[in-house]
Amino acid sequence: MPGEILSQSEIDALLSAISTGEMNADELKKEETERRVKVYDFKRALRFSKDQIRSLTRIHENFARLLTTYFSAQLRTYVQITVATADQIPYEEFIRSIPKMTILNVFEVPPLEGRLLLEVNPNIAYAMMDRMLGGRGASVNKIENLTEIETQIMSNMFEKAFDHLREAWSTMIEIEPILTDFEVNPQFLQMVSPNETVVVISLNTQIGETSGMINICIPHVVLEPIIPKLSAHYWMQSAPKKDRNLQEVIEIENNLKDASLPIIAELGVSNISIQEFLLLDKGDIIQLDKEINLPIILKIGSTPKFYVQAGKMNRKQAVQVLEQIKGGSDEDE
């Protein structure tokens, strides 16, 4: 076992104690030869290193920020979610630590095996539901008497919230969270054996004036295939910053490609007085400033982009692109 490294001040204090007789050098040697024993609890097996726990903490700090944005938009009130603790404990110890009646959402995360548990304190869950139903966010704990409507609202809300875990975990693996069970009594839920090691990420949650905890329970069997990716060495050896920036640009471009834009085929323009406009009636004709044999201008948003010709396709009105407008500005008209 490697010896403990002393600072310079501790070395000076040790030499001073030996020189003044406060400490005997022979006793010090005897103490060094004694076998050091460290108590190990086999019921509380530590299967993750501190480095791996730190990696999981960083991932779920990002998840907490995503949840803050999501719930703030959904509930239209002040929401603050932060990671409070991240620890590895036996599953049985986790079940004993949560309320006897609480909100339990069980998720599968393919392609990983096993299931994750999202436990939401009833005070938080009811405050969220009250806001969803148009209330002020009051918390009334009546979890034993949940109606079918309340159960459906809560399960839908947390199912959509847990979708953000996909983005938080995307640096390690692409997952597809699926809500498989909704329960209120922890005793009826047996995901893994009582002594199985689980990682519990506790999120401190503030909604308006109501506060409480949201716990994410991740069994060892779920994380086992990606444990090597949780080490600092993996993060250091991951894609260079230039490649990561390129990937982010590609993702932004792909998202922009799905954005919708209005397309306007402008037949022509006409100027009339307000008096003429007020007197318009069915059957009246408005003369446009463009001749019928000239091409029509197609605008993307408010910018002219193409010269087109009007027609029909599959019995629907359509336009055929004739030529691109160079520069794409109003001056090219």
UniProtKB/TrEMBL annotation:
Gene3D superfamilies in alphabetical order: CheC-like, SpoA-like
Residues that span the membrane, as ranges: none
Classification via Pfam families: FliM, FliMN_C
The Flagellar motor switch protein FliN-like C-terminal domain, residue ranges: 255-325
Keyword list, A-Z: Bacterial flagellum, Cell membrane, Cell projection, Chemotaxis, Cilium, Flagellar rotation, Flagellum, Membrane
Highest taxon in the source lineage: Bacteria
Signal peptide feature range: none
GO MF assignments: cytoskeletal motor activity
Localisation per UniProt entry: Bacterial flagellum basal body; Cell membrane
Biological process, per Gene Ontology: bacterial-type flagellum-dependent swarming motility; positive chemotaxis
UniProt topology in membrane: Peripheral membrane protein
A single cellular component GO annotation: plasma membrane
Main localisation: other
Family: Belongs to the FliM family.
Name of this chain's protein: Flagellar motor switch protein FliM
UniProt organism field: Fredinandcohnia quinoae
Gene (name only): fliM
